[in-house]
Amino acid sequence: MQTRRFARQYKKLHDKTALDVDAAVEMVRQNPETGERKKGDLGALHVFKFHSNNQLYLLGYTLEESVRLIYLEAVGPHENFYRDMKR
Prior knowledge:
Layout: H1 4-11, H2 15-30, E1 36-37, E2 46-52, E3 55-64, E4 69-77, H3 81-85
Antiparallel strand pairs: 1-2, 2-3, 3-4
């Protein structure tokens, strides 16, 4: 499942980057624990890091264990990613 924030960010990506995001989403789908769990304000957030076009991108997601859902929260370059997630 994806949030509105994720959908807006995904729509703005270049085709090559969108393919890399699709591959990252598939990796997370196969193993949801692969991402690093954050602490503090973003304690519920998991982040999976990957490279696209020689730039580090982050895929932020949360898990709903009881119903086995992965919520795709955000995707974007590392720059200002966490600041934007706190909004």
